[in-house]
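Support case: user asked for a sample of complex input and structure output to validate their parser. Sending the pair below.
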Amino acid sequence: MISNLLAKSYARTAVAALVALVFAIVVTSIVLSASGFNPPSTFQAMFSFGKQPDSVVNTVNRAATYYLSALAVAIGFRMNLFNIGVDGQYRLAAMLAAAAGGAWALPAGLHQLVIILVAAVVGGAWAGIAAILKVTRGVSEVISTIMLNFIGTGVIAFLLSPDRLAVKVAGSNNIGTKPISSSGRVPGISYPGSDLQIYGLVFLAVLAGLGFWFMINRTRFGFDLRATGLSQSAAVASGVDAKRMVVIAMVLSGAVAGLVGMPQLLGGSYSYSLDFPTGIGFTGIGIALLGRNNPVGIAFASLLWAFLDQSSQILEFNDIPKEIVAITQAAVLLSVVVVYEIVNRVGRRVDQRRVAAQLGEVAA
Amino acid sequence: MIDQEVRTPTPRTGGARAARGRRALTIGLGVFAALIALRLITGETDITSSGTISATLGLAVPIGMAAMGGLWSERSGVVNIGLEGMMVFGTWGAAFAAYFSGSPWLGLLGGIIAGAVGGLLHAVATVTFGVDHIVSGVAINILAPGVTRYLSDLLFTHETGGGATQSPPLPDFPTWSVPGVGGPLGDLEKHHWFLISDLAGMVRGLLTNLSPVTLIAAALIPISFFLLWRTAFGLRLRSCGENPLAAESLGVKVYTMKYAAVVISGAFAGVGGTFLAMVASSNYQEGQVNGRGFIGLAAMIFGNWRPGGVAAGAGLFGYTDALQLRGGAGAVHAMLLLLGVGLLALAVWHGYQRRMVTAAVSAVVAVGLLAWFFLTDELPREIVTYSPHITTLLVLAFAAQRLRMPVADGLRYRRGGGH
């Protein structure tokens, strides 16, 4: 029974995710009890808050952003390339795209397209620095993308000043880029029972997910990408140009990272200001790992993550530190990689036994 | 694997060691001379002031400890990207222990234990469960800030001066100075005489107002070298990073060695974290580590996985950080000149060696830097803040060539996987 179940790779993923989730709930409950809170009533409060219409809208909006970020990370992960720099890439991209969108007046349709294109190009270019350093100088992309995150923060601080790309936001101390005019905005979708709107660019996330699936599973490039990730030497032997793959994958990952800020920029804030959300790139790493770099898995993972973030807002009112969900998320993450490793090992043994049994039949 | 280049190991004679010592001395004197020249040309006194040197020492300690942590772990074959998170654990553990016990020394112990727990987590994931080293490290980096924020919210918010993102003020370590050095050298330094004042500034910076944690950190580098390169334990540990299957066949307990190395690695990160929370500032603050764990890894790569090189790397990053903090935009601007001239020299060297592409790239960058230096008076403050990070990138880009990492670094190892 179990051996049949583990023979399927998607079943392995699902089992691993489920076990990890249970484990994370247990860990969270232990931490909550140890801090003197009642776990069931805490979960109850989170759940009833999380299913309110406003929370649903916020969860979907967050999830779309997380999804794009995780997708960007996953493109690299699929070929063992660690793009830790999604965070810097999306912030720099969102800032420059917002500045471009605010400065240029274009007809509707073209305006949005240009903004999104600018974001993708900036994100790709920023990631491209790490790619070039890797293929020409052998610099580990892990270190270089992390450094580029910091440097990106400096570049944003430099550009986002009133002498350069920023203007004062009316009625506050905040500064931001010039707001994008209505021709560049993307209308939202109403959700029954809520005054809030779902970002129109949620569809951009869906589209990116479909594109990712198609590219990975149905194109030559995707095949090469996966092959390089599984065995670089085998891929090179079969004629894959490993350096070229690194550059393309990294730039592509950066371009998708550039899209991360778009749903919010074109659907809600219309300008990049000091309070634009940060840290989504790191969240994306966690979600990509949780979703096993699979577009469907990542979708579930980002919804879960967004739900936890959103529903934790209620905990403040009950005097429970809402960072408890950070512990839940980290526990899910750490246990999912461990559990997947174990499930995979057991699964491999099952495979071997089955093959051995079949060979035995043939021989007999 | 058969056609791999076979290198005959150089016999470690006294002569070779002396030669290496002479080279280090030459490089050291060269750097010193270059800095003095730079001070004279640009008039930025902060380039060699005792304040900058003492700040360098302070900023080099956390980076150096992270780098030594990375060295311990990677010498046993486990890549440790989680150092950043382990340092975060260290800052919090130090604050917790120091505040609730009232003793800075117990704070240091708390920091070390908290860091080591982070290391243990990494060891369990990578060694026992065979999880990809980078994946586990990234997970720890995500875990650490969440856990410390939660614990702070629980334990520090009800204390005066504490909150969800910071601890109350912590007890101080005593500071030590070599007696009779500070006063006279301080006088000499004020005159800004060629060479004498520079030397006085540097010596004064190195010998006065030292924290015991700085001294412990400095001592840990030669101690690590001795343990890793002069004892049987060290040989076994390093053999796990070079060829674990061969080590296993000789009876080395590879899992035990890797566990020891990664836990020690976390403990080093914990020392660095303690320093950040208790010496570099007066309390634990969220975001205090700010990428120093990663810069430490870069320092380790720069130092070619050897303690002496690691110390030099930490010093370099500490110096750039100290310069931007104290001298600000002007002093870092002066560095452009040094960097430009240095790169130009490198370009000439590459050209002489007939490596034309590298030479051309170096030359173009060098000319760009020099033009930048002569056409501007200052660098933008917002970007100068990140000069350690930019230095990291530049150093890796221009130096990451003739390095030799442990052969089995980052590879998955299962016991009995050799047949």
